[in-house]
């Protein structure tokens, strides 16, 4: 039995195969409409979510399965003090697979150690968000045609942004990927990403503060929200929250085929006027999240082997 805690839990060839499956699901959804009949997905979300929880639920329903779960710690027995370990033991009796989001880093890993069913990390604190990364990889590969030979700009809250940490971990395994890390000093990537991931693997990267200084060289611009919920004081958040606002004017220097991505939700970091730009792909990206989560559910339940794709 396999769990998914980090994008590194899958080899590059396993990720390529999962993305192939997701592309096939997009093309022929009816082929997979009964694949999970009789199976149940539990969504255990101790933190708010729109895309991840609902796209997981849509994914299981699209596969013919059923869903159950809770959408906040307050609506589960966590509010009475139940541990994640005890909760997953119970969920293991009710469901075949579980997607878990938790504000504490490592909580889904703790759950996986006691679980009798596959556990998927649906975001743990400021640490990792592997299914967002699979979504991002599918989006980039589908729209660019490849995952190597790209200059990727990551902009905003690179300190607390778990989507950024997971995406860097995943993309360093492809050839000739260069990162431009665009953030204010206080929101730079954590040292463990800079030293143990980027430098240790000889990955080309630069760190800049001004988005305008990087724009013209980017193949992908990945905007992120400043993570209010991870700040220790509101004053710092208010000072930093509008540090970057992508608008039409700032895009003047961008390549014509640059992809603008964002894991969403956005607050103010992409002006609504950008939504009409042909390079704006963040809503399409959210749609890819359903296909990739369908592919992931099939893979972890070992039902992917029933299909040729
Ligand atoms: N991208 C993402 O994780 O969105 P939600 O918080 O809405 O799930």
In terms of topology, how is this protein built?
Layout: H1 12-27, E1 40-45, H2 51-62, E2 66-70, H3 84-94, E3 97-102, H4 107-114, E4 119-124, H5 130-144, E5 150-155, H6 162-171, E6 177-182, H7 191-199, E7 205-208, E8 220-223, H8 234-240, E9 259-261, H9 282-300
Parallel strand pairs: 1-2, 1-3, 3-4, 5-6, 5-8, 6-7, 8-9
The chain binds phosphoric acid mono(formamide)ester.
Describe the structure.
With 309 residues, this protein is α/β, with parallel strands linked by helices. The chain folds into two domains: 7-128 and 287-306, Aspartate/ornithine carbamoyltransferase (Rossmann fold), CATH 3.40.50.1370; 130-285, Aspartate/ornithine carbamoyltransferase (Rossmann fold, 3-Layer(aba) Sandwich), CATH 3.40.50.1370. Helix content is 35%, strand content 15%. The chain has nine helices and nine strands. It has helices spanning 12-27, 51-62, 84-94, 107-114, 130-144, 162-171, 191-199, 234-240, 282-300, and strands spanning 40-45, 66-70, 97-102, 119-124, 150-155, 177-182, 205-208, 220-223, 259-261. The strands form two sheets. The protein has a five-stranded parallel β-sheet with strand order 7-6-5-8-9, with helices on one face. It has a four-stranded parallel β-sheet with strand order 2-1-3-4, sandwiched between helices. The mean pLDDT is 96. Residues 49-52, 123, 132, 263-265 line the site of phosphoric acid mono(formamide)ester. Catalyzes the condensation of carbamoyl phosphate and aspartate to form carbamoyl aspartate and inorganic phosphate, the committed step in the de novo pyrimidine nucleotide biosynthesis pathway. Pathway: Pyrimidine metabolism; UMP biosynthesis via de novo pathway; (S)-dihydroorotate from bicarbonate: step 2/3. This is Aspartate carbamoyltransferase. It catalyses: carbamoyl phosphate + L-aspartate = N-carbamoyl-L-aspartate + phosphate + H(+). Residues 149-299 form the Aspartate/ornithine carbamoyltransferase Asp/Orn-binding domain.
């Amino acid at each position: 039995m396999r769990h998914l805690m980090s994008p590194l839990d899958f080899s590059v060839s396993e990720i390529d195969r999962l993305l192939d499956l997701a592309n096939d699901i997009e093309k022929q959804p009816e082929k997979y409409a009964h694949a999970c009949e009789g199976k149940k997905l539990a969504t255990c979300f101790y933190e708010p979510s729109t895309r991840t929880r609902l796209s997981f639920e849509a994914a299981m329903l699209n596969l013919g399965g059923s869903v159950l779960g809770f959408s906040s710690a307050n609506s589960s027995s966590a509010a009475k003090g139940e541990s994640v370990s005890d909760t997953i033991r119970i969920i293991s009796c009710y469901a075949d697979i579980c997607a878990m989001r938790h504000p504490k880093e490592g909580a889904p890993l703790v759950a996986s150690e006691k679980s009798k069913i596959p556990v998927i990390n649906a975001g743990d604190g400021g640490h990792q968000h592997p299914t967002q990364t699979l979504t991002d990889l599918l989006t980039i590969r589908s729209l660019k045609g490849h995952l190597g030979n790209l200059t990727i700009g990551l902009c905003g809250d690179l300190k607390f942004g778990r989507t950024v940490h997971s995406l860097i971990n995943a993309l360093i395994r492809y050839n000739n990927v260069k990162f431009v890390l665009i953030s204010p000093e206080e929101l730079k990537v954590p040292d463990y990403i800079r030293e143990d991931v980027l430098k240790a693997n000889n990955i080309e990267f630069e760190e800049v503060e001004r988005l305008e200084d990087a724009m013209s060289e980017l193949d992908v611009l990945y905007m992120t929200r400043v993570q209010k919920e991870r700040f220790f004081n509101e004053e710092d958040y208010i000072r930093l929250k509008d540090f970057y606002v992508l608008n039409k004017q700032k895009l003047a220097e961008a390549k014509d085929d640059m992809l603008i991505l964002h894991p969403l939700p956005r607050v103010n970091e992409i002006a609504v006027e950008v939504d009409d730009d042909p390079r704006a792909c963040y809503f399409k990206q959210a749609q890819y999240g359903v296909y990739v989560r369908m592919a992931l559910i099939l893979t972890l339940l070992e039902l992917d082997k029933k299909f040729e794709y």
